[in-house]
Amino acid sequence: MARKENQTLIITDKNQMRTWAKSMRSLLNTIALVPTMGSLHDGHLSLIQEARNHSHLVVVSIYVNPSQFAPSEDLSTYPSDFDGDIRKLNAVPGGVDVVFHPHNLYDYGVESATDCAGMADVSCLEESGSSHETWVRVERLEKGMCGRSRPVFFRGVATVVAKLFNIVDPDVALFGKKDYQQWRIIRRMVRDLDFSINILGFETVRDADGLAMSSRNVRLSPEERQKALSINRSLSKAKSAAERGELNCKRLKNLVVDEIQEAGGELDYAEIVEQESLEVVEEIKSPVVILIAAWFGKVRLIDNIEINI
Amino acid sequence: MARKENQTLIITDKNQMRTWAKSMRSLLNTIALVPTMGSLHDGHLSLIQEARNHSHLVVVSIYVNPSQFAPSEDLSTYPSDFDGDIRKLNAVPGGVDVVFHPHNLYDYGVESATDCAGMADVSCLEESGSSHETWVRVERLEKGMCGRSRPVFFRGVATVVAKLFNIVDPDVALFGKKDYQQWRIIRRMVRDLDFSINILGFETVRDADGLAMSSRNVRLSPEERQKALSINRSLSKAKSAAERGELNCKRLKNLVVDEIQEAGGELDYAEIVEQESLEVVEEIKSPVVILIAAWFGKVRLIDNIEINI
Questions:
Q1: Who among B135, B139, B159 is closest to A133 (CB)?
Q2: Closest to B179 measured CA to CA, from B62, B101, B289, B281
Q3: Which positions in chain A touch B137 (Cβ < 8 Å)?
Q4: Torsion from C-alpha of B11, B16, B19, B20, nearest 10 degrees
Q5: Cross-chain Cβ contact A139/B129 below 8 Å
Q6: A25/A5 Cα distance (integer angstroms)
């Protein structure tokens, strides 16, 4: 099971993953997990490199989780490039010990579960019989923003992350703060369910033009990408305004909305919320975060900026 | 931390519980967990004794979980006798290594969580701010029977068991099949969330008169207790009838209902369901279980019988 320099062990079977983790733990190794859906970009790679600073061993999971996509969403077109991902991982300084790449985490060897297996254009919403039926709900944090636009999203995210935690048994797990609401939900889940795992969040990695890195960016046309720069621009504008003393959230939100709409983006939401509870605020009195989702063509992008006043 | 013969280590702090489990695991011990709400009777004690056959070490948790009680339910009158429990545990052949007896598993050191802390006559239903908000839902199995009568019950049970699993990190956990729906829900949760824990179910232990042992039995008057014997009698009758060829569930249910009502019990539900999915069946074609809940005075009792045809 030893990892040679620049060579990553690929595990596809969950029992084999458990066995590896158990044997490494018995040798007193600590394990860091970086959960991903593949199509790795520099945002992922910086998380993965960071992971090495927090544990002896690094596991990266690559799994496009079907249960977080509603039937209307882009599961079937979600970008995928496993060979490319492995090449990138092999080039990470310090390397990666294991890539956990399961075929289907919802297949329990019972007939009726196969509906959910095929990664087809279905969510796991309306299953019956003995197929998967257990969901982790983080009831308040899952409600607004992305939770409003994507009704099964956070249910699916929290559940698959709980599954990965139980299979990989990490000491620490690393998440990007680009998915801010997700990061807060995972932290809350870990606290509330008493997982013995340290959840670390890291700053969003951006391209030179300011666009937050996302696996979905590859689906933007050059023109759409140009328009999408309005997201980060609008967030920076609002932050500057707040720092100059504009604390009224309605006016700050208008800055954001105008900038994105003028660029031709279709706003899904823009909210200014308290950083931990994600409760909407009307006047900035303590640290907040501005969270945005917007459509450019057929691509939905999210981004955010913290304002620590 | 060593346990002397007939002396049980009592741990009230969850971090201390984790530390103990981790250190025992590093010595390659396996751990069995028997989750209880205290007021131990011979049903519990036989589970605890059985646990010794499945692991090196035995942990018994004693925690009356407030989140599984609705505000209208009997949290405040639920029987409690910690000193008596410890005496009983010290007398178990082979003994118990740890009693995990936390004060409050929903206190995360944040102000707003204290509402839920005091074991007062409230459920954790309507909390806000940064208090507990994560719930494990086993969406199909939690719906019928006790789930219909007790709306937050299985949500609370699944969640607290997930918490105990994450704190104690057992290899095996033992449950009584008297709480049949609960047992099925825990098994399903463990499968769906990929807990690496073997869930074992054991037969209901009965008093000499046939009444299923329950911590709530102490609250029955002698007269109510006499009436309550109709539960087990009715189940045995229905099972005999099925074994003699009566496979129509409506007629079998009538046998049960009549017996209990004639004795003066108030039926909450009587259902004949498939053993794993707990789906209601109309005609017995494969193994089923009859599940009953009924009130005798102010005490609600449950019981069941498997019919393996």
A1: B139
A2: B289
A3: 134-137
A4: -10
A5: no
A6: 21
Residue A254 placed within a domain: yes
Quick check: A189 contacting B, CB < 8 Å?
yes
- Asked if residue B210 is part of any domain, the answer here is no
Distance from CA of B35 to the nearest CA of A (A): 16
Same domain, B136 and B36: yes
Residue B163: which of A18, A139, A194 has the nearest Cβ?
A194
How many CB pairs below 8 Å do chains A and B form together?
A: 94
Q: Return the CATH number at A223.
A: 3.30.1300.10
Please check whether residues B188 and B225 belong to one and the same domain: no
Contact flag B136-A135 (C-beta cutoff 8 Å): yes
Q: What is the 3-state secondary structure (H, E, C) of B286-303?
A: CCEEEEEEEEECCEEEEE
Structural domains of chain A, count: 2
Q: Which active-site residues of A does the annotation give? A: 44
Range of the domain at B46: 9-202
What residues of chain A lie within 8 A of the CB of B275, using their CB? Answer: none
CB pair distance less than 8 Å for B134 and A193: yes
Would you give per-residue pLDDT tens digits along chain A (309 residues)? 445 555 799 999 999 999 999 999 999 999 999 999 999 999 999 999 999 999 999 999 999 999 999 999 989 999 999 999 999 999 999 999 999 999 999 999 875 434 444 433 334 544 677 899 999 999 999 999 999 999 999 999 999 999 999 999 999 999 999 999 999 999 999 999 999 999 999 999 999 999 999 999 999 999 999 999 999 999 999 999 999 999 999 999 999 999 999 999 999 999 999 999 999 999 999 999 999 999 999 999 999 999 998
Partners of B105 on chain A (C-beta within 8 Å) are 194
Describe the crossing of helices B222-243 and B249-262 by its angle, rounded to 10 degrees. Answer: 160
Q: How far does B131 lie from chain A, in Å, by closest CA?
A: 9
**B209 part of a folded domain:** no
Q: Which of A202, A226, A242 is the last residue of a domain?
A: A202
Whether residues A166 and B18 touch (CB distance < 8 A) is answered with no
Give residue-wise pLDDT tens across range B77-120.
999 999 999 999 999 999 999 999 999 999 998 754 344 444 33
Contact A41, A176 (CB under 8 A): no
Q: Are residues A141 and A263 located together in one domain of the fold?
A: no
Based on the number of CB atoms within 10 Å of its own CB, is A284 exposed (0-12), middle (13-18) or buried (19 or more)? middle
**Statement to judge: residues A49 and A80 lie in one domain:** yes
Residues of chain A in contact with residue B128, where contact means CB-CB under 8 angstroms, are: 140
Integer CA distances (angstroms), A32 to A98, B45, B152, in order: 10, 40, 35
Residue A1 lies inside a defined structural domain of this protein: no
Q: Which residues share a beta bridge with A59?
A: A33, A98
Which residues of B are tagged catalytic? 44
Check whether residue A130 and residue A224 sit in a common domain. no
Tell whether B116 and B242 lie within a shared domain: no
Closest residue by Cα to residue B99 from B12, B3, B1, B2:
B12
Same domain, A65 and A173: yes
Candidates A134, A135, A188; nearest CB to B133: A188
Those of residues 14-33 in A touching chain B at CB distance below 8 A are 14, 18, 26, 28
